[in-house]
Design goal:
Chain A is an alpha/beta fold and 415 residues long. Chain A is built from 20 helices and 14 strands. In chain A, 40% of the residues lie in helices and 14% in strands. The radius of gyration of chain B is 27 Å and the shape is elongated. With 426 residues, chain B is an alpha/beta fold. In chain B, the strands form 3 sheets. A 6-stranded parallel beta sheet of chain B has the order 3-2-1-4-5-6, sandwiched between helices. Classes of the chains: A alpha/beta (415), B alpha/beta (426).
Chain lengths: 415, 426
């Protein structure tokens, strides 16, 4: 950790969340200086500890790359909230915190009695953050799901991809990673500012359905105002042509051919001229009918086929460099190997951070998602092992004696 | 009037598409965001969809959505007189957000170094595809280039198609969300220390975490995740997982996953409706009793049993798909979820507008647009803050609507404003 005072130095966060949307948000708080206690339970493990990926020949709860990436630099505490003592310790942790965050379902929040009014009774000026899937009221409040279910429900599946395919979504639990944790972070920082000015805490309710639909506003507004139902358009856009991904020369990797693709977009006629120049002005491309967006739109199939013929003979990196040299927006459809190893730009900026974890080893973590020139943010350490900081937290934060800690272990409250 | 979290923050908004959602987030939490439009108006006003499906710069739903609560001034910062106005505005601003190619603001004499001499605690946020430095810093971008270079696009789509771009400028949106958070982080630091700084947001980095496990899978296992289409990671049809056709659209099913009801609850439902066929007989009944996510991930570990199991699964799939095909997507979603069976409706925009939960929570917002005599439905809040609620307090501005107000506030006289106008600076 650098000596520089970080923006959130001194901020105390009780992180009762699990899986993606909550932990990622608290991860960013930790990277900018907050002390974050991640509360878990052996009785109900964070699913990400179980699914991996795992380093070769290791598969304990402590080595999942999925889990570790979202929990860097947090302190790990295991509490069994189904015991009286465990709940009492949770209450004391909440009383300690400036920010309480959970993404458990309304049913669990009710069972634990950790709704805003209850949390506020423990800590009047806390910023209490909830990320229920559907919100705390309404006919669907108990509906459940992961990002995989939220993507279809919120419209990403219907709107993304090619029209001749099933609405398969984006291949990930998409809203869990930037949309929901990012929105939550914005709300928390705004609430902390208000708290600084007024002394007042507040409740932040981020209903994941609302947070995830918000970025699709144009399609929603198109229906709400115009009755127009947008559908899947593949990689095309109404106001650009050509616009899409094109197959390049295969790589060989691990003795197998590997597909390579380049993405590009031409948004105006000047970019089209630059594009034609970049591909050495073949006869088809110099056709005056293609000089305008309308003209290109009319013959988009043909243009895409011709571009595919051009890209097919080039590596994705060559095509990108050539097109970029003429000012055409183009980029390799990169995979994780590109991101970690071959992308010289990411390397030069030092985006990925390698940390040594006692069990998992030397692994890559996502760095902070934005760079501040004077307080750049920094992962404070690898993710905690299950219950790694139990003793430290019990002593330093909860003020417990050795004897009380031993009792908590026997009572399976620290579990 | 309720309190707003950011009502003492003033933002000069020079952002293009890649950053404009960031200033919307700040404005909707109460910041005074001044959108600086070039003479002739913001080009985003010409991006559809349009209100009433009539393409016109005063009807862009795309622009409107991204500019709620903002004021607008037209200002030509490429002219010396325009730059002088901008510098004057910086004196009373907290934040400048810009999305030009790195170095462009410096070339106008408006880089962070210069702005911080005018206003030492200014926060300047720059949002670009690749950030302010590094070998690709000057690469040209559009949304698809960002999602491609971030590693997330390679995960989306069917093997037979090109990788899929997510709908709706998700690259721009993701970068802008991180930019809003980064800006507020810098504001928190300024409040603590009195020190401003430059916030550098790279779309590529902002989106990296969207790769889910792909980055760690390569880091730890040297294996590359790629797009797997509708079926997901296992190249077989799994009963109860994936996209299913209904009478009027599709649902996504995710049965047997942690937290939800077991597959046997699904069988009970099908039995009640007389559509279980022979699934209550063996070997199906016992198989269903074991069918969950950990069973599925263990399939490959017992290859000798695989052919028989695949045969059983194919039959389950067929009967399950028939059940789905007999029902509407809303019935499957709502009745399924009421039994804790994890169904998600594949919503169209129409379904989102008609969604009973969003309606109950009054998510869509009504905003008056007197100039065109219409009430316009807007997307609602991404979050709800109890003390300082998200709110649309002001409809998006007309081009330059607040130029005079803002110049008066900055101390310009009527004569000076006329002069600026004559020079084409405002």
């Amino acid at each position: 950790m650098s000596d520089k005072q970080q923006p959130l130095s001194g901020l105390k966060v009780a992180d009762f969340s699990w899986f993606g949307a909550g932990p990622i948000c608290a991860n960013n708080l930790a990277a900018f200086g907050a002390t974050v206690v991640r509360v878990e339970s052996e009785a109900h493990l964070d699913g990400l500890r179980l699914v991996g990926p795992f380093p070769p020949d290791k598969n304990t709860f402590n080595v999942s790359g999925y889990f570790n990436n979202y929990n860097a630099g947090k302190l790990g505490l295991t509490l069994n909230l189904n015991t009286e003592l465990g709940m009492d310790m949770a209450h004391r942790l909440i009383a300690w915190a400036d920010v309480f965050i959970t993404n458990h379902t309304p049913r669990i929040i009710e069972k634990w009695q950790l709704g805003y009014e209850q949390v506020r009774a423990l800590n009047e000026n806390v910023v209490a953050v909830y990320q229920p899937m559907q919100g705390f009221d309404g006919p669907h409040k108990y509906f459940m799901g992961f990002g995989a279910v939220l993507g279809p429900i919120t419209g990403y599946s219907h709107l993304s991809g090619f029209p001749h395919r099933a609405p398969m979504g984006l291949g990930t639990n998409y809203p869990d990673y930037v949309i929901n944790p990012g929105h939550t972070l914005v709300a928390i920082l705004a609430a902390l500012r208000y708290r600084r000015k007024t002394g007042k805490g507040q409740c932040i309710e981020l209903a994941q359905i609302e947070s995830s639909v918000a970025p699709l506003a144009p399609a929603v507004m198109d229906y709400a105002n115009n009755g127009c139902v947008q559908g899947r358009q593949g990689n095309r856009l109404t106001h650009a042509a050509p616009h899409g991904a094109f197959r390049c020369k295969d790589n060989e990797w691990n003795g197998q051919p590997e597909e390579r693709w380049i993405a590009l977009g031409v948004f105006d006629d000047a970019q089209w001229r630059a594009f034609v120049d970049a591909i050495d002005a073949p006869t088809w491309a110099t056709d005056a009918a293609l000089a305008t967006l309308d003209g290109r739109k009319q013959r988009e199939d043909e243009i895409e086929q011709k571009i595919g013929e051009w890209t097919r003979d080039r590596t994705a990196e060559e095509a990108m460099a050539l097109l970029q040299s003429k000012g055409v927006p183009a980029g390799v459809v990169q995979n994780a190997r590109d991101m970690l190893e071959s992308d010289e730009h990411l390397k030069a900026r030092g985006y990925y951070v390698y940390l040594d974890h006692p069990e998992a080893g030397h692994n890559a973590y996502d760095g902070p998602p934005f760079r501040l020139s004077k307080t750049p943010g920094e992962l404070q350490g690898p993710a905690p092992m299950l219950g790694q900081h139990n003793e430290q937290i019990c002593k330093d934060i909860l003020g417990m004696s050795d004897e009380q800690i031993a009792d908590a272990i026997v009572a399976q409250a620290l579990y | 009037m309720t309190a707003a979290a950011l009502d003492d923050i003033r933002v000069l908004d020079l952002s293009g598409e890649i950053g404009v959602y960031a200033t919307k987030l700040l404005a909707d939490l109460g910041a005074d965001v001044m959108r600086i439009e070039p003479p002739g108006g913001d080009p985003m006003r010409m991006i559809g969809p349009f209100f009433g499906e009539r393409a016109s710069p005063d009807r862009s739903l795309y622009f409107w959505n991204l500019n709620t609560n903002k004021r607008s001034i037209t200002l030509d910062i490429t002219k010396p007189e325009g730059r002088a106005v901008f510098e004057k505005l910086v004196r009373s601003a907290d934040v400048v957000v810009e999305t030009f190619e790195p170095g462009y603001m410096e070339s106008l004499g408006l880089g962070y170094g210069r702005l911080s001499t005018i206003k030492p605690d200014i926060v300047m946020t720059s949002v670009t595809a690749f950030g302010q430095d590094g070998p690709h810093a000057h690469y040209k971008w559009c949304d698809i280039v960002g999602v491609a270079m971030s590693g997330m696009m390679t995960l989306a789509g069917d093997k037979e198609d090109p990788p899929n771009r997510p709908y709706g400028n998700q690259g721009y949106i993701g970068a802008a969300i991180q930019a809003a958070a980064g800006t507020l982080m810098a504001i928190v630091h300024r409040d603590n220390s009195g020190e401003g700084q430059h916030v550098d947001v790279s779309m590529q980095e902002a989106l990296s975490i969207n790769q889910e496990t792909a980055m760690q899978t390569y880091d730890m296992m040297k294996a590359i995740r790629t797009r797997t289409g509708a079926r997901g990671a296992l190249p077989i049809d799994i009963p109860g997982i994936g996209v299913y056709e209904c009478t009027d659209g599709q649902v996504f099913a995710y049965l047997g996953t942690p937290g939800g009801a077991p597959w046997t609850a699904m069988l009970d439902w099908m039995t009640r409706e007389g559509m279980a066929e022979d699934l209550n007989d063996e070997p199906y009944r016992e198989f269903i009793g074991n069918l969950n996510l950990s069973f599925l991930t263990g399939l490959v570990r017992e290859p000798e049993k695989l052919p028989e199991r695949l045969k059983i699964m194919a039959h389950l799939y067929e009967v399950f798909a028939k059940f789905c095909a007999s029902k509407s997507k809303w019935d499957l979603y709502q009745e399924g979820q009421q039994q804790r069976l994890m169904f998600g409706i594949v919503s169209t925009p129409e379904d989102l507008v008609k969604n009973p939960q969003l309606q109950h929570r009054q998510w869509l917002q009504k905003v008056e647009h007197e100039e065109i005599g219409a009430t316009v439905a807007y997307a609602g809040p991404p979050y709800r803050l109890s003390e300082t609620p998200w709110a649309i307090r002001r409809r998006p501005p007309l081009p330059g609507e607040h130029t005079i107000d803002v110049l008066f506030e900055a101390g310009y006289s009527t004569e000076q404003i006329d002069e600026l106008r004559a020079k084409g600076a405002v």
